[in-house]
């Protein structure tokens, strides 16, 4: 193994959310920025030009990322190399503190024929040089299929959401998941209203883990997609939510996500779920 590739990712003021730290969706954008720099540094650069799709993300949020003039340190390497897929591993570090650990499954793709393709010899050589076969996998975060269950949140694709491949960028899917999550939880009980939603006593809700599987590409259109969201597990201070992004016209599921949401106090320390929120979510619990 060559070591870890290091990319400096510039922070923007607009990356922050109402709670004053970098929004969870922006973390996926940082991963993408670092990943592009990594691949363009060697013989995988053409893969970005010709076609590459994200199959899945696993993102573990360890500490909040705050705004700074200093760039975020992104460390990445290769965890797995297969015939037509690979796994990138990451660490995002700020002020010597581990903020994020993540994995991304990638697949080279032939957009002219609309089929996956195998890695070329040059590409395989590049990724193998950065391979650490001893990289420990992140634990799986499982959830039942919703199969039409859960609160429906219509989400419109914006003109700026597609990327250079003309389909919705992988980061934007997490925007849709966020929209569904906030809509479902804040309507389940007023105690789950977020900061800046007019609730002065709002608890802090932090993302501890977020996984997403990309199943079918999404294209720009005027008609909204449906985001289905349901709680699938309740802990003392946490909630596991399942999300599916669905085309309401044909029922095709474009993505499935699982999110661990943690209730916290103003200092960011875990606190028990509000009683009213627990009672409301228990009625909506989807377990099989």
What does this structure look like?
It is a single chain. By secondary structure, the protein is an alpha+beta fold. The protein has two domains: 139 residues, Hotdog Thioesterase (Thiol Ester Dehydrase, Chain A); 148 residues, Thiol Ester Dehydrase, Chain A (Roll), CATH 3.10.129. It is built from five helices and eleven strands, in the order E-H-H-E-E-E-E-E-H-E-H-E-E-E-E-H. Strands 1, 2, 3, 4, 5, 6, 7, 8, 9, 10 and 11 form an eleven-stranded antiparallel β-sheet that branches. Strand 4 and strand 5 form a beta hairpin. Helix 1 runs antiparallel to helix 4. The longest helix is centred in the middle third of the chain and has 19 residues. The termini are far apart. InterPro entries: 4-hydroxybenzoyl-CoA_TE, HotDog_dom_sf. It comes from Brooklawnia propionicigenes. One of its GO terms (molecular function) is fatty acyl-CoA hydrolase activity. This is Acyl-CoA thioesterase.
Number of domains: 2
Query: What is the C-level CATH assignment of the largest domain?
Result: Alpha Beta
**Architecture (CATH level 2) name of the largest domain:** Roll
Rg measurement, Å? 19 Å
Helix content range: 10-25%
**Major β-sheet profile:** 11 strands, antiparallel
Tally of DSSP β-strands: 11
Task: Report the oligomer.
Answer: single chain
SS summary, helix count? 5
Kindly report the average pLDDT value.
Answer: 94
Protein structure class:
alpha+beta
CATH superfamily name of the largest domain? Answer: Hotdog Thioesterase
Order of helices and strands: EHHEEEEEHEHEEEEH
Q: Which fold name corresponds to the CATH topology of the largest domain?
A: Thiol Ester Dehydrase, Chain A
Question: Approximately what portion of the residues adopt beta-strand conformation?
Answer: 25-35%
Detail the poorly predicted runs.
Answer: none
Please state the overall shape, judged from the principal axes of the Cα atoms.
globular
């Amino acid at each position: 193994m060559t070591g870890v590739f290091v990319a400096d990712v510039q922070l923007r003021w607009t990356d922050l959310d109402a709670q004053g730290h970098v929004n969870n969706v922006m973390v996926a954008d940082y991963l993408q920025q670092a990943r592009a720099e990594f691949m363009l540094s060697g013989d995988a650069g053409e893969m970005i030009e010709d076609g590459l799709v994200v199959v899945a993300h696993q993102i573990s949020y360890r500490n909040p990322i705050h705004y700074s003039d200093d760039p975020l340190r992104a460390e990445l390497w290769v965890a797995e190399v297969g015939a037509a897929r690979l796994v990138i591993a990451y660490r995002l570090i700020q002020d010597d503190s581990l903020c994020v650990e993540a994995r991304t499954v990638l697949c080279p793709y032939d957009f002219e024929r609309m089929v996956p393709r195998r890695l070329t010899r040059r590409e395989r050589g590049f990724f193998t040089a950065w391979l650490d076969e001893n990289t420990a996998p992140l634990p799986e975060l499982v959830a039942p299929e919703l199969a039409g269950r859960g609160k429906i949140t219509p989400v419109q694709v914006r003109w700026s959401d597609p990327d250079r491949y003309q389909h919705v960028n992988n980061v934007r899917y997490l925007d849709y998941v966020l929209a569904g999550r906030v809509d479902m939880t804040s309507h389940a009980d007023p105690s789950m209203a977020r900061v800046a939603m007019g609730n002065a006593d709002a608890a802090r809700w932090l993302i501890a883990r977020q996984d997403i599987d990309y199943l079918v590409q999404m294209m720009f259109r005027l008609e909204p997609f449906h985001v289905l969201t349901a709680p699938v597990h309740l802990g003392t201070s946490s909630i596991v939510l399942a999300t599916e992004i669905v085309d309401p016209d044909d029922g095709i599921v474009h993505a499935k996500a699982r999110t661990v949401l943690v209730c916290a106090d103003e200092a960011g320390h875990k606190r028990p779920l509000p009683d009213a929120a627990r009672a409301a979510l228990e009625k909506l619990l989807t377990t099989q």
